[in-house]
Design a protein that fits this description.
The complex is a heterodimer.
Chain A (H helix, E strand, L loop, with lengths): L3 E12 L6 H16 L6 E5 L3 H5 L4 H9 L5 E5 L5 H15 L5 E7 L6 H8 L15 H16 L7 H11 L13 H5 L3 E3 L2 E2 L8 E10 H4 L7 E10 L14 H13 L10 E3 L5 H10 L8 H6 L16 H4 L4 H17 L12 E8 L4 E8 L1
Parallel strand pairs in A: 2-3, 2-4, 9-10
Antiparallel strand pairs in A: 1-7, 1-8, 4-7, 5-6, 8-11, 10-11
Helix pairs in contact in A: 1-3, 4-14
Chain B lengths: L2 H6 L1 H6 L1 E5 L5 E2 L14 E5 L3 E10 L12 E8 L4 E5 L13 E8 L11 E7 L6
Antiparallel strand pairs in B: 1-2, 1-3, 4-5, 4-7, 5-6, 7-8
Classes of the chains: A alpha/beta, B mainly beta.
């Protein structure tokens, strides 16, 4: 296996893009990544996306984006792993370069959600869950996370208010990210009075519906020096899985896929453990997921994920900085694109280009993309 | 839900029937054709009694397509007395203070407004255990 680095990044600001379609979003992000790398070479593209079939009636998406970007006739494949599709596309691009199958590969994440009304998107998102035994009973994706959050509060004696710090931190950091969707801070009072979506989950516990696309150009480390931008090495790339149905796990509050993929990643990157990570871009689609992620990845003991947030340790100047450019909550969560945005933001941090929320002396960053209710986790550790 | 699919699911949806692995004795709901623990295909249908306790609950305020006319509605996870957890709608809970740990029982109810194919999908839901049923 060859060592792999990231030499270019590109993104479209996350928003409701009424004038941009799926193909243009993906192609624009791809071309921006090539421009950043100072090259026009892409040997293959892997496109992370979850909902093009459900929401746009469009399969065969990777070919469409290769066509739109002027990449034909290169290899182009779509990668789907529910909400972890973006991370999985980075993983696919990594394995293609590491194996020697290709030298210059684009990982692209793209999602177009805002053409639909809420009930259509709620139905589409529920396809990440078990179609017969969860979605088929009207249990929405938000509801599954709400079931977890209520159980968490019951088992550990925490309150809804204990989760506020995750959302406040994400919004605080998003203010400084020009590509983020929600560039406004929120207060504890805003959080406490937010509209309930599926109790105890409110709007301010949840990442919003949006459109976006991001891309990374990967190449072998031994060819990276020829390009102008600082190369960020992919020190670990791992995936782990768990039951699709939340109820089928021995303990729904322990997300085994995150546990396994995180610990494999620490080992692959030659790290002793989570203490060696300078920033952690977790899959904060819901505040409960942030807490469960911190615990499964080993940053906090069980039931103490919320404590890290409450004590301010997840802020950019804390010891476990999270959502440093807004995360899924503040930057936005265009489902299959989010995993690529996460890795892109770790690259920005490790290049020292993260602006006001720059983590000082950031050398090692972790990005983690989670699909379903913790049924698949893709973890990447980057080093500068 | 497509008719052949609904037909395939009828035993689990109507009767809460799962499976038991004959090699390692593990019980499954939903039923599995292959035991994920020992990979044995020697499994047989297993009839769950339909009693359990509430593991967690919430209310769906933004129902997915096909569930709009019955929303908002309560859903929960139920720990069956035989062991497995089941995710399900809750019913007959108007005016009931739901509490984790409360006893519940399975009933058969209409699950969806109406399917796109015109027939009504029925299946299990759980309700607070009726007094006297103990």
């Amino acid at each position: 296996m060859r060592d792999v680095g990231i030499i270019g990044i590109g993104q479209v600001p996350i928003s409701e893009h009424w004038d941009l379609c799926l193909r243009d979003l993906g192609a624009l992000a791809a071309l921006r990544a090539l421009e950043d790398a100072g090259t026009d070479r892409a040997d293959a593209i892997f496109v992370g996306n979850m909902l093009a079939g459900e929401l746009s009636g469009q399969e065969n998406l990777a070919t469409l984006i290769a066509d739109s970007a002027g990449f034909l006739p290169i290899e182009a494949l779509r990668i789907e792993a529910a909400c972890a599709a973006g991370g999985a596309a980075v993983r696919a691009a990594y394995t293609a370069v590491a194996s020697g199958a290709h030298d210059f590969v684009l990982a692209i994440g793209v999602e177009k959600m805002t053409d639909h009304l809420t009930d259509g998107i709620t139905s589409a998102l529920a396809t990440a869950a078990d179609a017969d035994y969860e979605a088929g009973h009207g249990v929405s994706f938000v509801a599954l996370n709400a079931l977890l959050m209520r159980r968490y509060m019951h088992e550990y004696g925490s309150t809804h208010e204990d989760f506020a710090a995750f959302s406040i931190n994400s919004h605080e950091n998003a203010v400084h990210n020009p590509n983020a969707m929600y560039r406004m801070p929120i207060t504890a009072e805003d959080y406490a009075t937010s509209t309930v979506v599926s109790d105890p989950i409110t709007i301010l516990d949840s990442a919003a519906i949006c459109d976006g696309a991001a891309a990374l150009l990967l190449c072998p480390m031994d060819q990276a020096a020829a390009f102008p931008r600082q190369t960020i090495e992919i020190a670990a790339s791992t995936v782990a899985t768990d039951t699709l149905g939340l109820a089928e796990r021995p303990d729904p509050l322990h997300w085994g896929a995150i546990d396994v993929s995180s610990h494999h990643a620490y080992e692959q990157a030659g790290l002793a453990g989570p203490a060696d990570i300078d920033l952690y871009e977790a899959h904060d689609a819901f505040t409960i997921v942030s807490a469960l992620s911190l615990e499964a990845a080993g940053f906090a003991r069980r039931g103490e994920g919320v404590t890290l947030a409450r004590e301010g340790r997840i802020a950019p100047d804390g010891d476990v900085p999270m959502s440093t450019l807004g995360g899924l909550k503040g930057r936005g969560h265009p489902i299959g694109a989010s995993g690529v945005y996460q890795v892109l933001e770790v690259v920005q941090q490790l290049r020292g280009e993260a602006g006001p929320t720059q983590v000082k002396n950031a050398k090692v960053g972790m990005a983690q993309s989670v699909g379903g209710s913790g049924s698949v986790a893709v973890t990447h550790i980057l080093k500068n | 839900m497509q008719l052949p699919r609904y037909h395939r699911l009828r035993r689990s949806f109507y009767r809460l029937e799962g499976t038991r692995c004959n090699r390692c004795d593990r019980l499954f709901f939903p039923g599995r054709r292959i035991c994920p623990d020992c990979r044995s295909q020697d499994v047989e249908p297993y009839q769950f009694r339909g009693r359990g306790t509430l593991y967690s609950f919430t209310n769906v305020q933004q129902p997915p397509r096909g569930f709009g006319s019955i929303g908002p509605y309560a859903v929960g996870m139920v720990r069956l007395e035989e062991g497995p957890l089941v995710t399900s709608q809750l019913t007959d809970v108007d005016g009931v203070d739901l509490v984790i740990g409360m006893e519940v029982e399975m009933v058969t109810r209409k699950i969806q407004d109406s399917s796109e194919h015109g027939y009504i999908v029925y299946g299990y839901k759980f309700r607070p255990l009726l007094t006297g049923a103990r």
